[in-house]
C-alpha cells in the first residue's frame, strides 16, 4: 500500500506562479498532494518593462496541475491591487475548502544608480516586492490561522541579507521582506502559523533574460557580473532547487522551522 502524499488535502496560494520559480514550486507541491491557487500579473508592467508571465502560461500550469490529479485555480492580478488579492484569496478558500500554505513569490529586479533612480523605479520595487507580500499576507492570514499546517514562505534573496551594487531599491525591498518574515513569525506563532524566508542566489528563470535585455547584455553576462557562488561552474541555480527547499519547508518535516532565513546560495554568502 503506497503512502499518502505528504501534502495531501492541503491548499497552497502562490504568487508569481506563471513561470520561473513560482511555476516550479506549484508543480512540486501539487505532485506532493497539494491543491494550488496560482496568482500572476500575466502581463507586461510599466516597470521594469520586461515581460512577466502570460495568460497562456497560467492556463498550461493549470492543466499540468490537474494532470497530477490535483485541483487548480488560476487568477490574473497584480499583488499591488488589494481588491484583486482579497478576491482571489476568498475564492481560493471557498473553492478549495481552506488555505494552508502561502508562498509570496512575485517579485521584480532591475538595476538603477542611487543618484539616477526615479520615484517610479523605487516605488514599483517596494510596492511589488514588499507591499505585495503584505497585502497577500493580510488577506491570507485569517484563513491560515484556521489550518493545523499553516505556513508562509516569503521568497526573498541573498540580497535580503547583504548589499548589492546599483540595487539599492531591490536590496531595501528584500531586507524589508526578511524583517516582515521575522515580525510575522513572532506575531503568528501563538496561532500555529509558521513563517520563514528563503534566500536563493541567482536562479535560471525568464527574469534573467528580461534583466539582461534592459542591461544590453546576455543572461550569462549578468550572472557573471554578480558572480560570487563558491561552487565552481554554478552561475545560477535552477527553479527545481528552490522548489525542493520549499517542499521541505511547507511539510511537517519542517514543523519547528519558523522565523528563520533559509539560504540556497551555492556558497555566495560565505565569508
Q: How far is the N terminus from the C terminus?
A: 48 Å
pLDDT under 50 segments (min length 5)? none
CATH class: Alpha Beta
Order of helices and strands: EHEHEHEHEHEHHHE
Helical/strand content category: alpha/beta
**CATH architecture assignment:** 3-Layer(aba) Sandwich
**Helix percentage:** 40-55%
Strand content: 5-15%
CATH superfamily: NAD(P)-binding Rossmann-like Domain
* Number of DSSP helical runs: 8
Order of strands across the widest beta sheet? 3-2-1-4-5-6-7
Count up the domains: 1
> Might you state the CATH topology name?
Rossmann fold
Mean model confidence by pLDDT? 95
Number of strands: 7
Largest sheet: 7 strands, parallel
| Morphology | globular
Radius of gyration: 18 Å
Would you kindly provide a written description of the structure presented here, covering whatever features stand out?
The chain contains eight helices and seven strands; from the N terminus they run βαβαβαβαβαβαααβ. Helix 4 (119-144) packs parallel to helix 5 (168-188). A seven-stranded parallel sheet has the order 3-2-1-4-5-6-7, sandwiched between helices. The model has no long low-confidence stretch (mean pLDDT 95). 43% of the residues lie in helices and 13% in strands. With 271 residues, the protein is α/β, with parallel strands linked by helices. The termini are far apart. The chain is globular, with a radius of gyration of 18 Å. The chain has a single domain (11-201, 239-262), classed as NAD(P)-binding Rossmann-like Domain (Rossmann fold).
Amino acid at each position: 500500500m503506497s503512502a499518502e502524499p505528504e501534502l495531501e488535502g492541503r491548499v497552497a496560494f502562490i504568487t508569481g506562479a506563471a513561470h520561473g520559480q513560482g511555476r516550479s514550486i506549484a508543480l512540486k507541491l501539487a505532485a506532493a498532494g497539494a491543491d494550488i491557487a496560482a496568482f500572476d500579473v500575466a502581463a507586461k508592467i510599466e516597470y521594469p518593462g520586461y515581460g512577466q508571465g502570460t495568460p497562456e502560461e497560467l492556463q498550461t500550469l493549470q492543466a499540468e496541475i490537474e494532470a497530477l490529479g490535483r485541483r487548480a485555480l488560476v487568477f490574473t492580478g497584480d499583488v499591488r491591487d488589494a481588491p484583486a488579492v482579497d478576491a482571489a484569496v476568498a475564492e481560493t478558500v471557498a473553492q478549495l475548502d481552506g488555505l494552508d500554505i502561502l508562498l509570496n513569490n512575485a517579485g521584480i529586479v532591475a538595476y538603477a544608480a542611487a543618484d539616477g533612480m526615479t520615484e517610479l523605479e523605487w516605488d514599483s520595487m517596494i510596492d511589488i516586492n514588499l507591499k505585495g507580500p503584505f497585502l497577500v499576507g493580510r488577506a491570507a492570514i485569517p484563513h491560515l490561522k484556521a489550518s493545523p499546517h499553516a505556513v508562509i514562505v516569503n521568497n526573498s534573496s541573498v540580497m535580503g541579507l547583504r548589499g548589492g551594487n546599483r540595487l539599492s531599491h531591490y536590496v531595501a525591498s528584500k531586507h524589508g521582506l526578511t524583517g516582515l518574515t521575522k515580525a510575522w513569525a513572532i506575531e503568528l506563532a501563538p496561532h500555529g502559523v509558521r513563517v520563514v524566508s528563503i534566500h536563493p542566489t541567482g536562479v535560471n528563470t525568464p527574469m534573467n533574460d528580461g534583466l539582461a535585455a534592459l542591461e544590453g547584455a546576455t543572461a550569462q553576462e549578468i550572472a557573471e557580473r554578480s558572480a560570487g557562488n563558491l561552487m565552481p561552474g554554478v552561475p545560477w541555480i535552477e527553479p527545481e532547487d528552490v522548489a525542493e527547499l520549499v517542499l521541505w519547508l511547507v511539510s511537517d518535516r519542517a514543523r519547528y522551522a519558523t522565523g528563520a532565513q533559509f539560504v540556497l546560495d551555492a556558497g555566495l554568502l560565505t565569508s
